[in-house]
Amino acid sequence: MSQEPEPISAAERRALERDRDALRAARSADAPAPQDSDQAGDRGDAADQSERVDEATHVGVRLAEITLRLHEGERAGVPPVDAVGVGSTVTVRFPDGDRATLHLARLASDRDPTLVTADSPLGHALLGHEAGDRVEYATPDGRETVHLLSVGEPGPENGR
């Protein structure tokens, strides 16, 4: 991973902002209610409290990661359009003819299925390539090749 901040695509930004907002809402909903310190609790209460603390820690760490990524993306400027880099939007055609517009991101998001991480086999293989290139990458079923139709805006319907 480089020391320079990496650009962030509009799609990645939206997905991270949705994740951030969902985590903030979950954190607010899970905030512990004030308890009377004179009440005696049992081990179940202690276990429940420990679980809430663990979840709050996880949420806090993920919020910090998202906030940092959004800040870095803002500092880095616009994603590259001449060659594929982190933050790029690309359109590819698979061997079966299917096309997909994907967004290369550093962090995965379960809220945006079009995000491909730069360290995934496809994402890593695409890095540095230009529109028109054929890119080979490893899959669990063997090697695959995609045709990189465009870098930047989604490619034409009838690409190369």
Automatic annotation (TrEMBL):
SUPFAM superfamilies associated with the record: FKBP-like (SSF54534)
Disordered as annotated region, ranges: 1-59
Biological processes annotated in GO: regulation of DNA-templated transcription elongation
Biased composition range(s): Basic and acidic residues: 11-24, 40-57
Residue stretches of biased makeup (Low complexity): 25-38
Protein name: Nucleoside diphosphate kinase regulator
Positions of the Transcription elongation factor GreA/GreB C-terminal domain: 80-151
UniProt superkingdom: Bacteria
Keywords assigned by UniProt, alphabetized: Kinase, Transferase
Species for this entry: Streptomyces benahoarensis
GO MF terms, alphabetically ordered: DNA binding; kinase activity; RNA polymerase binding
